């Protein structure tokens, strides 16, 4: 079995650069400490999407990452098919959301596609981009503004393309309508993102 291919289903952007060294002093703050700069993002994190992502382990370990560094999350294709966006955010691993808030690259592996022609699981081409969008939205960095009589607040929101459709508006509206407990969970990561300079989430699907 070869190494999993990295799909473009996640947040846009180039491959993650080599990790930068951590701050030299324990007294430096997350916002840059004594130097006033921004701390570099953490190194890439690798997540197995349960349960079919487990099949990627032989190609992933130890060639790419040691077994003890592999993490796990659960973004179910059935949840995507049901349009349960709240469920996607509730089941996303807290470590994944924190890593994304800190600006680290996140790779999610899933080999459970039900469509042999398309090959990419729905959890990666739909679920993962929505998690990235919601992370942006709840950290206040998606470019949207409060709607007014003359403006719907979408002027500064970049398009989000999923299978040829711009889903930025329906996804923003869905985020605004989410249950309070889901909003509270997602907003928890906002101060960490702001302390790191509000980097955009870098989520990549690999199948």
Question: Please, could you describe this protein's structure?
Answer:
By secondary structure, the protein is α/β, with parallel strands linked by helices. It has one domain (40-145, 153-206). It is 31% helix and 11% strand. The strands form two sheets. It has a four-stranded parallel β-sheet with strand order 2-1-3-6, with helices on one face. A two-stranded antiparallel ribbon has the order 4-5. Strand 1 (45-49), helix 1 and strand 2 (71-73) form a beta-alpha-beta unit. Helix 5 (122-138) crosses helix 6 (168-176). The longest helix has 17 residues, at 122-138. The relative contact order is 0.21.
The outline comes out as globular
Number of domains: 1
Q: List the strand order in the largest sheet.
A: 2-1-3-6
How many angstroms separate the termini? Answer: 12 Å
Strand share of the residues? 5-15%
Regions with little confidence, pLDDT below 50 for 5+ residues: 8-35, 145-151
Q: Helix-strand pattern, N to C?
A: EHEHHHEHEEHHHE
Secondary structure tally, helices: 8
Largest sheet: 4 strands, parallel
SSE class: alpha/beta
Please count the beta strands (DSSP E, at least 2 residues each).
6
* Mean of pLDDT: 80
Estimated radius of gyration: 17 Å
Helical content, roughly?
25-40%
Protein topology:
Blueprint: E1 45-49, H1 57-60, E2 71-73, H2 77-81, H3 85-91, H4 94-101, E3 105-109, H5 122-138, E4 161-162, E5 165-166, H6 168-176, H7 180-187, H8 190-195, E6 202-206
Parallel strand pairs: 1-2, 1-3, 3-6
Antiparallel strand pairs: 4-5
């Amino acid at each position: 079995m070869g190494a999993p291919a990295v799909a473009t289903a996640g947040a846009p952007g180039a491959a993650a650069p080599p990790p930068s060294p951590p701050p030299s002093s324990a007294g430096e703050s997350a916002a840059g400490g004594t130097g006033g700069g921004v701390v570099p993002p953490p190194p890439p994190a690798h997540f197995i999407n349960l349960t079919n992502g487990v099949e990627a382990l032989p190609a992933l370990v130890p060639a790419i990452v040691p077994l003890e560094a592999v993490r796990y999350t659960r973004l179910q294709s059935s949840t995507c098919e049901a349009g349960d966006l709240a469920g996607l955010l509730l089941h996303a691993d807290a470590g994944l959301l924190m890593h994304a808030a800190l600006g680290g690259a996140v790779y999610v592996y899933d080999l459970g596609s039900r469509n042999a022609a398309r090959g990419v699981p729905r959890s990666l081409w739909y679920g993962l981009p929505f998690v990235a969008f919601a992370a942006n939205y709840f950290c206040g960095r998606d470019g949207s503004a409060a709607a007014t009589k003359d403006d719907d607040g979408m002027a500064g929101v970049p398009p989000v393309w999923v299978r040829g459709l711009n889903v930025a508006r329906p996804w923003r509206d869905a985020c605004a309508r989410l249950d309070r407990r889901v909003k509270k969970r997602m907003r928890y990561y906002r101060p960490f993102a702001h302390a790191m300079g509000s980097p955009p989430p870098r989520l990549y699907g690999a199948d």
